[in-house]
Amino acid sequence: MPPMLRVIRVLAPNPGPFTLEGTNTWIVGSSPVAVIDPGPDDPGHLRAVATEAGAVAVILLTHEHPDHAQGAERLSEMTGAPVRSFGALPGREPLAHGERIRVDGSALRTVHTPGHTPDHVVFAAEEDRGLFTGDVVLGRGTSVIDPPEGDLGSYLRSLQELVALAPRVIYPGHGPTVFAAEAKLKEYLAHRAMREDQVIRSLDAGPATPAEIVRTIYADTPEELHPVAERQVLAHLLKLEKERRVVRTGVGKRERYVLAGERACERCGRPVAGGQRLCRRCSLDALQETPAAPDAPR
To answer: Are the beta carbons of 174 and 138 closer than 8 angstroms?
Structure first.
């Protein structure tokens, strides 16, 4: 059995609703090491990372969100190590999907995992089947998919690709290490399938906005979190729209989502039958509002 890869976490001091206890900066290997996600540009945190790491061969980014990547330049200046990312912004060295980075006799394979962001990657430690997942999988709770940067269809395909790797352990960007890795990934997929079913069942009652759906399926969620929940519902609706399972109707404040095969009344938003433009009630109202036609010539 090959020796286990040396992995050390340095927790960044940026706790919050979306970062949990803070960003996990991972030090991988033994002299020289790889540093994954240096975190925010916090001098004290970066000094702690540099001290714990010693010689650094490379700084790897799962994605460019500030809570993961903002400290990369400062850590690079402190250690002399290059910064590498899939997005390859100025000052970065590009990573390629499938590329292997040698660390301490092991290999970290770059797996492009879009969905949370288009540039997101996971680093798979091949020998001990560990995944450094950034924001694709958290140690607690679920990842936020925020359109248009986030794309739920891509995200689900990324999760399925990670399941296929049969991982043993997950080292997430936030939260505790996950030792039941495959079960966690399947839990994430099941959670999204459950939410999609809830969205569809909400639309069975008629056309609705994301905010209206949130009030139905997130009834037990504190109201201050409803704006975030609304973005998750929108991500599901956009996925379903791409699959032609829902359509949008109306414009502006009247815009609603409706199940494909149904139409919404152009005036009130209620479901209508067949190819009708108005529901029965609005059709009757429209008849009353139509000016009488002038008398025909005699």
So the answer is: yes
Q: The domain 205-288 is classified under which CATH number: 3.40.50.720, 3.40.50.2020, 1.10.10.10, 3.40.50.2300?
A: 1.10.10.10
| 167 neighbors 182 (Cβ within 8 angstroms) | yes
Burial class (CB in 10 A: 0-12, 13-18, 19+), 234: buried
Residue 58's region, left for phi above 0, alpha for psi from -120 to 50, else beta, is beta
Tell me the pTM. 0.85
As a whole number, the mean pLDDT across the chain is 90
Are 65 and 39 within 8 A, CB to CB?
A: no
pLDDT tens-digit series, residues 70-88:
999 999 999 999 999 998 7
| Residue that the structure tokens 């040396």 belong to | 6
Where are any strands of DSSP class E within 52-166? 56-60, 83-85, 93-94, 100-103, 106-112, 121-125, 130-134
Was domain 7-194 assigned CATH 3.60.15.10?
A: yes
| Separation CA 70–CA 56 (nearest Å) | 18
Contact 264, 271 (CB under 8 A): yes
Whole-number Å distance between alpha carbons of 109 and 119: 15
Q: How far is CA 265 from CA 102, 206, 246, in A?
A: 60, 11, 16
Contact 108, 125 (CB under 8 A): yes
Residues 124, 130: contact at Cβ < 8 Å? Answer: yes
Residue 35 CA to residue 171 CA, distance in Å, equals: 13
Residue 181 in contact with residue 167, Cβ under 8 Å? yes
pLDDT at 291 over 50: no
How far is it, in rounded angstroms, from Cα 248 to Cα 236?
A: 13
